[in-house]
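Hello forum,

I keep getting stuck at the same step: I have a sequence, I want structure tokens, and every attempt I make locally crashes halfway through. Rather than fight my setup again tonight, could one of you with a working pipeline run this one for me? It's a single chain of 122 residues.
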Amino acid sequence: MLSLQLKTGDYMTIGEDVVVQLDNISGDRCKLMIQAPREVPIVRGKVLERTGGERPDCVLDAPRRHRQEISWNRGKTQTVSAMRSLLSQMDGESDEVRTLRRQLDSLFPPGFLPTGAEGPQK
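Reply #2:
Ran it on my machine without issues. Output:
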């Protein structure tokens, strides 16, 4: 099986008629856009298996991820706040800044404050 690493916006072609583009990455999910002739069936793996189809031998099982809780304190809250502030000061709104902001928001959604964490001191 061919393995490719793509960045958001990158695409690949399969034959002459199929185009697959990586549209978005969020956490452990990605959004793919596929352009293919109507006669080419495109079926999600879960649907294929649920309807009696067999999982292809080349498909690997996804690694199990163990979520480890982050011990939280005021310093980490201040760090996330400082990162948001720096990102808002970066001019040009480049793709890199948008990507960093999206990644930070994915890890720590705006307004995120874990239970028991102290807010910034005033």
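Residues 7-37 form one domain. If your local run keeps crashing, start a new thread with the error log.
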